[in-house]
Amino acid sequence: MDRQSPLDSMEAWFEQMSKQFETAADRWGTGLEPWSEGMSQPRIDMAEDDEQYTVVADMPGFGKDDIEVYVTDNTLAIEAEQRDETVAEEANYIQQERTHQSLSRRITLPSDADTETISASMDDGVLTITVSRVEPLDSGHQIDIE
């Protein structure tokens, strides 16, 4: 009679998990893919220093008039919509894909973000949003136990 090692079944289990993770990664992507026209969320970078937070979002093909930036309940929202209204009536399209494009992204801001002083600028399809930092209203305090 041949005894099976408990490690043999663990190895098979790890191989099965590895295959499942690979399948999931193929379905979901890595999250590092470049922005493409079919995406519904712009890719962002968010950085901080002692004075402010900076959010940089790639918005290719959008002009500043196509984009809305606002804050609600400590959440920064970026929304963009673009319609191609130019249609040549005599054109015989084989394929027409550039008719409507919209993006939306919500970012929860840290508790020390000053939502009253936010600025935004647009340069060559890159949206930069700057949010000042403030001292937290309540830094916490000790509670005595009775």
TrEMBL record:
Gene3D superfamilies tied to this protein: 2.60.40.790
Segments forming domain SHSP: 35-146
A matching Pfam family: HSP20
CDD domains the record matches: ACD_sHsps-like (cd06464)
Family membership noted in the UniProt record: Belongs to the small heat shock protein (HSP20) family.
Protein name per UniProt: Hsp20/alpha crystallin family protein
Annotated source species: Haloarcula salinisoli
